[in-house]
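Revision sheet: structure tokens.
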Amino acid sequence: MQKRLCISALVLLAFAAIPASATWNSCQQPPPSVCSGYGGWSRLLCETYCEVLNCDSRTPSCTAKLCGQVESLFKCATNKDLPCKTTTPNP
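Predicted:
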């Protein structure tokens, strides 16, 4: 139960952190994602870490603790490292 509550809180935080400029026209395809190989919660956690919170950059938009929690949940769900951590970091 506590894990679900934590995931729900992270999801709400992720959607609250998306700037209005990050949306796209419904007729367009979404931009390619480093997380496109995952689905469901795994993809949501991946996109939260890599794209919304920018935890893989030198200047993430949240605390290291929150990034670590999202990373732990992703590893627990997939037993893999986040794809953005295995590629070149964002500036």
